[in-house]
Amino acid sequence: MTEAIQIAAACVTAALLALLLKKGTPELAALVTLAAVAAVFLALSGFLGQLLDFLQELSQKTGVSQELFTPLYKTVGIALVVRIGGSLCRDAGESGLAAVIETAGAVCALLVALPLLRMALSVLLELMNA
User: Is the separation of the CB atoms in 22 and 29 below 8 Å?
Assistant: First the structure.
């Protein structure tokens, strides 16, 4: 909880600073925003490691194949990167680039999820033939 409050406070501070800088030097405002994003990712890296460790433990204890979890991890990662990248592009006034990022992210997420879709298809075909 404390970390969320600290991150929110840092982001609001960076947003206000970027807003002040945007009038005079919009490039510097964009750099402040990018620096805030990088700082948040660094702050969260330890927590993300703990989360990944738990998910790996969950996979081992349930006996579910790691092949099922890997596409899920990758898809979530793609979604986060696309959301942040799209927001940064929109903030910079580049909504066209944001749309391209979102389209590319959707394609990449589908490609990463193909193994899961193939497994689901094979299970359905087995059920239909049984």
Answer: yes
Q: Measuring CA to CA, how many Å separate 129 from each of 90, 118, 123, 125?
A: 49, 16, 10, 6
pLDDT at 67 over 80: no
Average pLDDT, the chain: 87
List, as own/partner pairs, every contact residues 46-55 make where C-beta atoms lie below 8 angstroms and the sequence separation is at least 24, other chains included: 47/3
**Phi, psi values for residue 23, rounded to 5°:** -65, -45
CA of 37: how far to CAs of 48, 85, 104, in Å? 15, 10, 21
DSSP string for 72-103 = HHHHHHHHHHHHHHHHHHHHTT-HHHHHHHHH
The answer to pTM > 0.70 is: no
Given a contact cutoff of 8 angstroms between Cβ atoms, the answer to whether 68 and 116 are in contact is yes
